Amino acid sequence: ATPASLPVKDCTSITPPYPRLLRTLDEVRNVLPKGTKLTLAEKILYAHLRNPEESLGGGGKVRGERYLKLRPDRVAMQDASAQMALLQFMTCRLPSCAVPASIHCDHLIQAQTGAESDLTRSIEANKEVFDFLQSAAAKYGIEFWKPGSGIIHQIVLENYAAPGLLMLGTDSHTPNAGGLGMLAIGVGGADAVDALTDTPWELKAPLVTGVKLTGQLQGWATPKDLILHLAGKLTVRGGTGRIIEYFGPGVPAQSCTGLATIANMGAEVGATTSTFPYSDNMRQYLHATGRGPVADAADEAAKQGYLSADEGAEYDEVIEINLSELEPHLNGPFTPDLATPLSSFSSFLNENKYPTTLSSALIGSCTNSSYEDMSRVASIAEQAKAAGLKSKVPFLVTPGSELIRATTERDGLQGTLESVGATVLANACGPCIGQWKRDEKKGEDNAILTSFNRNFKARNDGNLKTMNFLASPEIVTAMAFSGDLNFNPVTDSIPTPNGPFKFTPPSGDRLPPTGYTPGDLSYAPSPSPAPEPDTNIAISPSSTRLEILEPFGSNFPSGGGELPKMTCLMRVKGKCTTDHISAAGAWLKYKGHLSNISENTLMTAVNDEGGQINVARDADGSEDTIPKTMQKYQARSEPWMLVVDENYGEGSAREHAALQPRFYGCAMIVARSFARIHETNLKKQGILPLWFVNKSDYSKISAHDKVTTIGLEQVMNSTSTLPIVKLRVEKPSGEVEEIETRHTLSVDQIEWLRAGSALNWIGEQARK
Ligand code: F3S
Fold it and tell me: Where are the stretches annotated Disordered (predicted)?
């Protein structure tokens, strides 16, 4: 039976547009070869195509080959990445967003002493960012979830996720929403802006990995253990360019929130996203969270075959997992794919001479803080308490949302955890994203256990030597009572004055038996707020963290023609990822301030002429850092270009990597090859990317050569359909050489360059 639910919400803006999606899917079936069987992932993606004929027509393989132009239904943004996404959105001066969107204040809350004090302190420290986000949300009609409301992915699951929906989120664990049978994809801010401005969002059709689940979870094994085990099989790269689609008799038995945990950590194997066929457990979760109308609409869509794969659909690869044989796992240290079954964990630690004393235990986060998780964890704590035990180490609990916090508090679960020594932190990311002020163990080797999703070095407490082992919240909690990582809660006992104590396997409720309670409603926005165009955007001119983004001017002469003559600033050697172009770490605080963050541009890049890192030379021979040299060019208004190596801009969709060179005046980048997403981002920001036709021509352009394009004018006027643009390279000696390059500009992208940026063009179109 469905437990008592929250009051039924107005679901108008959160119910997927099923009739439209089903109509598009019908069109798709007419375009694809007759009788094509579709996976669920394909159904959801193709139902969101803007033009099925354009993306799928003409025959040939689609998955892994074709680019899909999509129309996402919704956007969610967290407080760190929302800043630049909104600043960019503002440059096109549209009055409101094209799709419903939400902002979630979660990453900037630092865990230190406990929920209330941490929240007050973090709000004070980040006030200008929160004020800016709130003012932008009001102006453009975006739902704004205040600090303390919870973690983006938990709130999305509780409020916005729906079977068959396509959502973009500016955070890598956005796929968490796949727990409700949808496709939720983590992207950079520039992609989010595509959706917000109704620009076609492009995605290379992913391959589809099918994971067939059979059997039933036993004893201590949980959905978390399934994904920890799968991460070990697939490794951190095994899901790249793929959607993981689960199917088989083991799927319907899993709770909706358990599926969300699995989908969340699909990000750890690099998957585009993960999804599951619609199930009764999803229906119950929708009802329990006040979204009965969404469940009713999904039931109808399911009857028409939308929310599961076609019988006989083929996957690019199939992995079968028998849940009955699954053991609890602990993954790490330092990488989420180093999976060790619980039964061999002690020997794994000892063989590698890793610490065996636990220094802290942390549960919750966006990955594992459902009611089910907390209720099962409380069942372990109850047993320990009855045996007179308390947690041996600091035991921190991060509720995923105010809904979870309030409900677990009302039902006594939180009290049980506190009675054995737990500290409940704010409803925010906290220790999961390094927002954990932990003074003990600084610089020392030590081991922590968390129920989070990532365990790269320094991710939690900034200490490179902290080894984070990922496990289910149940295993983390049980081990906290022993304090010894050799302890296996399934088989071992803990000595007590009354004799040895052994845990029985955890148990709990999937949904609160008396329904959820919303808690403090003041954190939540009013649903579907109307835009308030008169709202002033709150950015202080003296801010060091936020800066209004001025639209870039076009690099092209107003009457048309070639790009003005450019100076080659440097030739970048070898691997140059988006991290090399715009470093993260301490620079993240400047994400909303382009002038300040630009001071890190290419600061770890190698200069091919001389081999030094972060060194460039000006025309007079003076050496300086790369960003300082760029600033000199900018100050002289001297157009410049870069020569770069293979796969330039690989790594992520970080839009800062394109924005920053553009900010300093870069007009063109010529590469041996580009990473595709970054190449598109360059075009979006108005920088022309060109590919050497002969890769050996890379070394024919040197710093301070003057470079002019030949034939670009015809490309821009669409009078040439040839992809070739020649470069005339003039050496300081007066020697001249011509080099062939090719462009990959589409008709739309030519307009972006002409307007100065994609957003300028979108703004121009909207004002016409
Ligand atoms: Fe936040 Fe960690 Fe999740 S940073 S969004 S709790 S992965």
Answer: 496-532
CB 545 within 8 A of CB 80: no
Q: What ipTM was reported for this prediction?
A: 0.98
Work out the average pLDDT over 326-350.
Answer: 97
Domain annotation covers residue 541: no
**Residue 56: CATH number of its domain:** 3.30.499.10
- Give dist(CA 275, CA 256) in Å, integer: 11
Q: Which of 379, 391, 652, 757 is catalytic?
A: 652
Same domain flag for 668 and 747: yes
The count of other CB atoms within 10 Å of the CB of residue 616 is 26
Query: Rounded to whole angstroms, what are the CA distances from 520 to 123, 135, 399, 525?
Result: 17, 22, 14, 12
Active site residue 652: yes
- Is the Cα dihedral 381, 382, 383, 385 positive or negative? positive
Q: Contact at 8 Å (CB) between 616 and 629?
A: yes
Give dist(CA 103, CA 144) in Å, integer.
5
Alpha helices by DSSP H, 243-308: 256-264, 280-288, 292-303
Count of structural domains, the chain: 3
Q: What is the pLDDT of residues 717-738, one digit of tens each?
A: 888 778 999 999 999 999 999 9
- 151 Cβ below 6 A of ligand 1: yes
Ligand 1: atom nearest CA of 176 is: 3
- Told to judge if 545 belongs to the known catalytic residues of this protein, a careful annotator would answer no
